[in-house]
Amino acid sequence: MQKNALREFKENYVKTTLKADVIDDAVTAQMGMAYDDASNAIYRILTQARLNDSYATKKGRDTAQVKIEKVLVNLKNKLTNTLRSGVWEMAGAMAEAAQRDLELLGVADEETLKVMGPPSMGYINTTFQDSFAHVAAQTGRMADSVRRELQRDTAEISRRVAVEGLSRPQAYRALRDKVLERQPEFKFIDKAGKQWDSKTYFDMLSKTTMKNAMRETYVDQLVKAKHDLVSVSRHGTKCRLCMPWEGEILSLTGATPGYYTLDQVKANGLFHPRCKHRLLAYHPEIKEALKKL
Ligand SMILES: [Zn+2]
Q1: Number of C-beta neighbours around residue 25 at 10 A
Q2: Share of the chain above pLDDT 70, in %
Q3: What is the CA(151)–ligand 1 centre distance, in A?
Q4: How many angstroms does the Cα of residue 112 sit away from the middle of ligand 1?
Q5: What is the dihedral sign for C-alpha 199, 201, 205, 211?
Q6: Is 169 among the domain residues?
Q7: For residue range 183-213, what is the model confidence (pLDDT) as tens digits?
Q8: In the chain, at which end, N or C, are there fewer CB atoms within 10 A of the end residue's CB?
Q9: Is residue 200 part of a domain?
Q10: Rounded Cα gap, residues 79 and 127, in angstroms
């Protein structure tokens, strides 16, 4: 390893982490704003529709629903595009970091550098398709929730009509104050039985996806360069899931005998949601130095 390479390696590590955090925070903030804008728009559409007597008719409610579904389709597109371009930016930053790390470790020859470089959009769409699918599923659940809300209003109007012999507009006028107080609750229960509201869900999805992108795209570069060994970053975590793996040397593909593979440690707790750990190209000479990162 060249003189000063270790210091530069560490500097590059810090710089890369900061840059990744900035990208992550920006994407998460943009997604949060898009969600807030959409839920405010839905609130306005619903309130306006409900203030109008035509809300007592199927046509009035259908019009509101169509408008709201449009807002949700726009939200889905906006969130997906924000996430996709965030992953793309992250991939670029991590490709640079990977290249720089291998150069500093003195293991990157001309040939290696040639095969490295930013991943394609095709790679991004394939690798992160689950995240994009989660966005679509969640905005779909939001649309269902609005539909249920409008159906409930309809059912109540019909009940008043049947029980009290009122006309639909009369029945609706009697109910309006109560109806106006209601808002669709954009909540859902996950497989583990935990309740999420949509805003928290998108926040979590963004952070998890961006952290995955940070790791996956770095690993992708190292695999392209046929660099197999990495070490797990350290930040003195208190998390029981990843504590045992701090500083551990891993084999990315299983090509180097005697090490746990990345898949094995992932199956054993490392890189759980919100995990801040990173992987770094490993070189035997830097083992001691990495302990102090
Ligand atoms: Zn962790």
Answers
A1: 13
A2: 96
A3: 44
A4: 30
A5: positive
A6: yes
A7: 887 777 777 777 788 899 999 999 999 999 9
A8: N
A9: yes
A10: 17
Contact 143, 68 (CB under 8 A): yes
- Listed in order, strand segments (DSSP E) in 85-142 are none
Closest by CA to 13, choosing from 292, 272, 216, is 292
The residue ranking higher by pLDDT, 283 or 147, is 147
Q: What is the pTM of this model?
A: 0.88
Q: Among 177, 185, 201, which residue's Cα sits nearest to residue 149?
A: 185
In angstroms, what is the span from residue 274 Cα to ligand 1's centroid? 8
Pairing of strands 229-232, 195-197: unpaired
Tokens of 168: 């639909």
Domain count, the chain: 1
pLDDT tens digits for range 205-253 = 999 999 999 999 999 999 999 999 999 988 888 888 888 888 899 999 9
Ligand 1 centroid distance, CA of 272 (Å): 7
Q: Per-residue pLDDT for 291 more than 70? A: no
Closest CA to 81 of 36, 137, 136: 136
- Buried residues in 129-141 as b, exposed as e (16+ CB within 10 A): eebbebbeebbeb
Half-sphere exposure of 127 (CA within 13 A, CB side): 22
Give me ligand 1 centre to Cα 150, in Å.
Answer: 43
Question: Between 80 and 183, whose confidence is greater?
Answer: 80
CA–centroid distance, 5 to ligand 1, in Å, is 27
Amino acid at 155: A
In a domain, 245, yes or no: no
Determine the pLDDT at residue 157.
Answer: 93
Q: Rounded to 5 degrees, what are φ and ψ at 72?
A: -75, -35
Tokens of 181: 């107080």
171 is in which domain, residue-wise? 25-91+107-207
Kindly state whether residue 270 falls inside one of the protein's structural domains. no
